[in-house]
Design a protein that fits this description.
Blueprint: H1 19-25, H2 42-52, H3 59-80, H4 99-104, H5 112-131, H6 139-151, E1 154-156, E2 162-165, E3 169-172, E4 174-178, H7 183-191, E5 206-211, H8 214-226, E6 241-242, H9 247-255, H10 268-278, E7 298-308, H11 311-325, H12 329-334, H13 337-343, E8 347-359, H14 360-365, H15 373-388
Parallel strand pairs: 5-8
Antiparallel strand pairs: 1-2, 2-3, 4-5, 6-7, 7-8
Helix pairs in contact: 3-5, 5-7, 7-15, 11-13
Length: 399
Amino acid sequence: MPIKLLEPMLKHPLFPLPPEVTKVILGGGSLIDQPGVQLPSLALARDFALNYGYDVDIPTQRAHLVNVFEDALAFMEEVILEGMELHLPPEFFDLQNPMDLLVWASKRPMDLRARWSCALLRVMHTLIHLDNNVYLRFLPEIQQQIFDRYERYLVPTSNGGWMLKGQYEVPLLAVKRKESKDRVSMLLKLLHKPENVAETIYDQIGIRLVAEDLLGVLATIRFLIDHHVLMATHIKPSRTRNLMVDLAALERWMTQLPSGFTFDQLEPKEKKEILSALTLKIEQPEINPFSSSSYSAVQFTAQTLIRLPSPAVSALEEIQTRLQTMGKPEIGDLLHIPELIQEQDEFTFFFAHEVQVMERTGFKSILSGPASHAEYKLRQKEAARRRVLQGIAAQEAPC
């Protein structure tokens, strides 16, 4: 019996393919860099939002979209447009339905309102990824578990420095903990990242350890490995940046060391020669376009297995507390709440944090000049501005 082909439902041509196919799915680009959207009616916009993840007929989901839109307006005015002569058109502050943005961004040829709609949608899309990252809800607990690994070995010294103290000691000039970024900082970071999603921020939590010189840097890393603060099994290879150590020279030097070698066996002149020989002199390819060429450190990303109680535990404990307050703890016993609490599985996952180890001169360079954090953030902000304001700012190509 011959196979009967179904009558095609599409009444418009399949080709040419839209940019979502050619530029994003096939080309590996980012959606927020593409020319607008193609949702010229509220019905299409609502269907898009539904499959994106928001049913605007559900009040709580619609309210979240409205909040995201209002946050995007504030971010645009206070961060992206800060110091510029550009301003958002007043009509955006009167907008009641965020679905209108999708319709406005679909106008062809694109007018100025369409381009501003694109800009706000780029920020909203990034905010939504940020707000729906489950890990960010547990950042205080995650930070505590990660920093505890280091702090059990960190001892402050009388001269304002630090000492890594365990099976042996390694002196440090400074220790800087990088706690979770604020929302604006994370939003700026995401807006210049191709992936544009919160899971790709690897430095939400980090630690910087500053040694006297390159040999101190190597001793610091060795201490962390020896005491299992860091584990080579949990290092993310693609995130490692060595901008300090000539590995070939280090291997040659180590093969010549006598048994039981310690740093205090080196004379000052000999130590200076070794430091010069081990220092990386070949310019490294720039991995982070926002870092200065004068930035010098060993930087890597380590993953830690985080253990948190099941979310059900807090709910069961709250019920137990309320029953005790009511003077009816026996109800909790009848419901076996203590046993239920014990039976809950832990919530476990790996979480990445960034580790920087540097020496004195490299540390000084990040406090001022082109390698400073302030200059880094300025370059990052300019990149986010260029990306968001495509087709609006004079120097940009059309959206």
